[in-house]
Design brief:
About 35% of the residues lie in helices and about 25% in strands. By secondary structure, the chain is of the alpha/beta class. It has two domains: about 180 residues, Rossmann fold; about 200 residues, Rossmann fold (3-Layer(aba) Sandwich), CATH 3.40.50.10300. The strands form five sheets. It has an eight-stranded mixed sheet with strand order 12-11-8-13-16-17-18-19, with helices on both faces. It binds ligand PMT.
């Protein structure tokens, strides 16, 4: 199940109990596991732990009651929609009662009411008598009936100075429950990959990110690619048991088991790809490779001259990495490319399938609302010769990646 948190959007909702400080370590562990974390907190929670601490650890601005005025007032709706999983931890008896009854009188309860996240987890922490109170137990039952997963509080030394049930559950339990719940909600492709490791013993080379073509020592030509799609493919191939070499023009965090090679320019990427392909079973070109580079980059920083002087760049064509791999592919190697298109998606993708001698093209309409550059989601069509196109998404890039890897397995198995 490892990797179930990678690239997942987790909304950590923190309420005001003594255990609120544990939200810091919880958010740190989610981030470490590759999740995108946003924190929403009540005003009382802020008296136990500063929003700034949670903001630094989650690497995102924290939503607090101070944001309820003006332009940020609809932010709670966007955040609720963004979440793949909501984790309410620690959950006080007061907030549980509000959520169970659909109240929305602060930014946290508004956010929860506005969300239809598939995974909702609550980790209550409170005084033992509050826990055993029939009203609390009734609210917990209502919430579980509404689809919330409950992580029972632990028994231990309470802030009141005696041993009883009411402490926040172990953070490991909360993390594992989140992983399990997200895993249960995964696509067939993701589950297949995690369960069966169908790429065990296979080597997969993936490219990612937007290449950078130097103009001078301080400037470069690039594009809008963030690398998210390529990194998601590398993680999906790893989850399916492959040995993965990720050749990336853009640096992002990834699993340690992935062999990451940074190659900023198209030429550097080609060199790294050719070396990695000598013993690889499959190539997936998700990088947005610049078609052009400067014929001769400047040695020194280019200076402005007169205000009306034009500055012209002399560009030459870059090598086509996918085409080179397609032309030189050895027997048994599978080559998958992408086609980032703004019009005539399927025709252009089919043309690229032939011209680049690829086994499959992932056609990507980069103007579709939930698709393309720098988004967390994508929507693609898989094109193969003499096969009905397979439409996938819109869904998260990790779910799309798992489906592409699933298809790669089918092609490799069919050889
Ligand atoms: O990185 P993200 O922000 O997550 O965005 C994802 C993405 C939009 C970049 C990705 O889904 C995608 O579509 N990648 C392909 C981008 C691209 O360059 O498309 P293209 O149609 O220009 O190129 C077709 C194929 O040839 C691609 O596999 C590309 O990697 C490859 N190519 C292109 C030019 C070149 N000189 N060498 C190449 O190998």
């Amino acid at each position: 199940m490892s990797g179930a948190l990678a690239e997942k959007n987790i909304l950590l909702a923190v309420t005001g109990g003594i255990a609120a400080y544990k939200a810091a370590e919880l958010s740190r562990q989610y981030v470490k596991a590759g999740a995108n974390v946003k924190v929403v907190m009540t005003q009382t929670a802020e008296s136990f732990i500063p929003a700034k601490t949670l903001g630094i650890l989650s690497k995102q601005a924290v939503l607090t009651d101070g944001d309820r005025d003006g332009s940020a007032s609809v932010e709670h709706v966007a955040w609720g929609r963004w979440a793949d999983a909501i984790v309410l931890a620690p959950a006080t008896a007061n907030t549980l009662a509000k959520v169970a009854n659909g109240l929305a009188d602060n930014v946290l309860t508004e956010t929860l009411l506005a969300s239809n996240a598939a995974v909702k987890i609550m980790a209550p922490a409170m005084n033992d008598q509050m826990w055993h109170n029939p009203a609390t137990q009734r609210n917990l039952q209502t919430l579980q009936g509404d689809g919330w997963t409950m992580i029972e509080p632990a028994t231990g030394f309470l802030a009141e100075g005696y041993e009883a049930k009411g402490r926040l559950a172990q953070l490991e339990t909360i993390i594992l429950t989140t992983e399990q719940a997200l895993f249960d909600g995964q696509t067939d492709g993701q589950r297949d990959a995690f369960d069966n490791q169908p790429l065990k013993g296979r080597r997969v080379v993936v490219t990612a990110g937007g290449t950078k073509e130097p103009i001078d020592p301080v400037r470069f030509l690039t594009n809008r690619s963030s690398g998210k799609m390529g990194y998601a493919l590398a993680e999906a191939a790893l989850a399916a048991g492959a040995e993965v070499t990720l050749i990336a023009a853009t640096k992002r965090d990834c699993s340690k088991a992935i062999h990451l090679v940074l190659a900023p320019s198209a030429k550097e990427m080609l060199t790294a790809v050719e070396e990695a392909m000598t013993d690889a079973d499959a190539f997936i070109g998700a990088a947005a490779v610049s078609d052009f580079a400067l014929a001769k980059p400047f040695d020194k920083k280019v200076k402005k001259t007169s205000p009306d002087a034009h500055f012209t760049l002399d560009l030459v064509q870059n090598p086509d990495i996918l085409k080179t791999v397609g032309q030189n592919k050895k027997s048994g190697q599978v080559v998958i490319g992408f086609a980032a298109e703004t019009n005539d998606l399927l025709q252009n993708a089919e043309r690229k399938l032939k011209s680049k001698q690829a086994d499959m093209i992932v056609a990507n309409d980069v103007l579709a609302p939930a698709a393309g550059f720098d988004k967390d989601t994508n929507q693609v069509t898989l094109i193969q010769a003499n096969q009905v196109p397979i439409e996938i998404g819109p869904k998260s890039k990790s779910a799309i990646a798992a489906d592409i890897i699933h298809q790669l397995v089918t092609i490799l198995d069919g050889q």
